[in-house]
Design a protein that fits this description.
- This protein is an alpha+beta fold.
- A hairpin with a 4-residue loop joins strand 1 and strand 2.
- The termini are far apart.
- The N terminus is likely disordered.
């Protein structure tokens, strides 16, 4: 990206529908999770993402996301749309648990 583009992106926008998003360096690379645990209350959904090492009986939560019920529903709709597009381009996703390093399922 050119310096002009960086300066242009940094300018505040008059469009009230646009949000400038910054990703801190420690978040940029993301975290791998092969297990998700979710809980909810009337006010929020809590999604804990964890890593279970092969042949281990313990998991380490490496990220927690807390959403309002409205945003949780939007997330479900967005993921459904993207999974459908993925399967259209790459083929169906199966529930075959033998393909990953951990062979268990939580509902």
């Amino acid at each position: 990206m050119s310096e002009d583009q960086n300066q242009q992106d940094a300018k505040p926008s008059n469009d009230k529908n646009k949000i400038n998003v910054t990703i801190p360096a420690d978040v940029l690379n993301g975290r791998y999770a092969n297990l998700m645990i979710n809980n909810f209350s009337k006010e929020e959904f809590i999604l804990d993402f964890a890593l279970v090492q092969p042949h281990a009986a313990a998991a380490t939560v490496n990220s927690r996301v807390i959403l309002s019920p409205r945003n949780a529903k939007k997330l479900v709709e967005l993921l459904s749309k993207h999974v459908a597009e993925y399967e259209k381009q790459c083929g169906p996703i199966t529930d075959d648990s033998s393909s990953g390093p951990v062979s268990f399922s939580f509902n």
